[in-house]
Each structure stands twice: as C-alpha cells, then as structure tokens.
Write a structure and sequence with these properties.
Length: 295
C-alpha cells in the first residue's frame, strides 16, 4: 500500500501522515518546503518537493502509488473558479493510474447548482467530479464546519466579547475538529474494504447553535461571550474592512448566502464513521482558551 498525501503540514494532513506512518504504510508527501518536510523524511516518508499544480510534481509523487489523499489548499486567486477548473483537469489527467482516492470536500458541496454558488464549498464539487471521472474508487469526505475557524474570531472575543455570525443564533448545524477529520481520513486510507464512489459525512458528536458555541467559549475563557447575528451585507462589509480582496469577499459572501438558504445542510446520514468525539465544549477548553490566553 503506497499512499500520497498532498498537504502534510496542514492540521488535517499532519494527522493523516502521522497515522499512516505509525501503521507502517508507505507514504509519499508533496511539500513546497524541504526543511519542513525533513522530519517526515526522517520517519520514513518519501518527500517530493514541488507544487500541487505542477504536472511534473504530480508525476513524481504518483510513481508507484495506488492511493491518494487530496485536500484543496486555501489558495485564493482572482477568477477562482477558472483556477479550480484547471486544477481539476490536471488532477483528472494525472490520477488515472491510481486505484483509490480519498478527497476532502465539504458538507453541502452536492447542492451547488450554478457557478459561484456556495463559494469555495461549491468549487470542491469540481474536484470531486474530476477524481470520480478518473479513478475507480473515490471516497469524498464531506466534513462539517471546522471548529478551528472559530479562531478567526479571537479579535472580537477579546474586544467586545462577541461572536458575530450571519446564521440565526439558535439554528443548529454540524461542526467538527480538524484533528477528527484527519483521523477519519487515515482510517479510510488504511481500510481496504470500501470500493466504488462513496460519500461520507464527518461531524462532531452533536449539532450546535451559535448561542451554544458562545456559551462554551465563555465558560472556557472565563468571561461572557454574546452571539450576535449580522446581515450578509454587514458580514461582507466586515470582511472588506478587514482587508480581504473583493474577490475573496464575494467568494465567502456566496458561501454565507448558501448557508442562509439551507444549501449547507448535510446530505450524508450520521453513523459511527461520521460522528466524531470532540465536542464544542472540549474544543473551547483545549484550543480556543489557550489561544485566547496566549494572545
């Protein structure tokens, strides 16, 4: 079993590589940074230095490989849809010798109906489709909203003590810790029993509301936190004020619009695989509180 991982330094990729190496799998990692990849090489990983959008890099990485874990990096450029389409074409052409692919997608990706709809989540469907057209066995993992994204709210947690959201504060939705996504992805790569084209959700132990998230964070950091709903226009104005380029504001505005119209609701049923262990209370205590105190 020879497995390629394209994001070995990410929150998710690092967990996957650790699990695969511990299991004795032959692992190849694609990295831009030889120095960062050196510890993985020391543990037995084969390292290919290069970019995921470089055909020669993919050729080198896929040599002798039969499985691939793919995570689309958060690399945003103008004309993002065209960039992802080109990347999907490249993956489609280069992955045809592989036997199985585990591709990280997102809850709601199946609901993209027009170009631009659902923003970055909608674009992940393009990647899913490219692999399904090229590889006989593809597992699309569609995780819930990342708990780690709450770390972006540290400035307002520290300042006004607020958690701003476009979502109704009492509407439940799934969240998941990235370490749990990495665990499930590693399990899938090491499990020889699945085949064909499949879709699996990856969620936390229970759905949460923004009011519950605010309460959990408040209890963890020792100060009250208020969940405040804002309009989509207010959210886009806030992103622009924070210095995000207009095309990124538009991209995430389309994602938030999809959240509001119900398109981010998971289609994949909960089961033992999709339901992970880390709840929002544990995450608030172990991740958010230390980050809050460190800052």
């Amino acid at each position: 079993m020879s497995i390629v991982v394209n994001t070995p330094h990410s929150h998710i990729g690092r967990i996957i590589v650790d699990q695969l190496l511990a299991a004795g799998a032959a692992v190849t990692v694609i990295s831009r940074d030889a120095e960062r990849a050196a510890p993985l090489a020391a543990r037995g990983a084969r390292v290919v230095i290069g970019s995921i959008d470089d055909p020669a890099t993919l050729d080198a990485a896929f040599q002798g490989a039969d499985q691939f874990f793919w995570l689309t990096p958060p690399h945003f450029v103008p004309h993002q849809a065209q960039y992802i389409a080109g990347l999907a074409d490249l993956l489609n052409s280069k992955a045809r010798g592989l036997r199985r692919v585990v591709v990280l997608s997102s809850t709601g990706a199946h609901n993209r109906d027009t170009e631009g709809h659902l923003g970055p989540v909608g674009l992940l469907l393009t990647i899913e489709e490219a692999f399904r057209a090229a590889v006989p066995h593809v597992l699309a993992l569609r995780p819930a909203f990342f708990m780690e994204n709450l770390l972006r709210d540290l400035p307002t947690l520290k300042g006004p003590g607020a958690l701003f959201t476009v979502a109704p504060i009492d509407a439940p939705f799934p969240m998941v810790a990235t370490r749990d996504i990495g665990q499930r992805a590693a399990e899938a790569l090491l499990d020889p029993s699945w085949s064909g084209h499949q879709y699996r959700g990856v969620h936390g132990p229970h759905d949460v509301t923004y009011r519950q998230i605010a309460d959990a964070i408040g209890a963890a950091i020792g100060r009250p936190i208020q969940a405040i709903q804002v309009t989509l226009d207010q959210a886009k104005a806030g992103m622009a004020q924070a210095g995000l380029p207009p095309f990124v504001v538009e991209l995430y505005g389309n994602l938030y619009a999809g959240f509001l119209d119900g398109r981010m609701t998971p289609a994949e049923p909960r089961d033992a695989f999709s339901t992970t262990a880390t709840d929002i209370e544990t995450f608030a205590r172990t991740v958010i509180a230390p980050a809050f105190q460190a800052g």
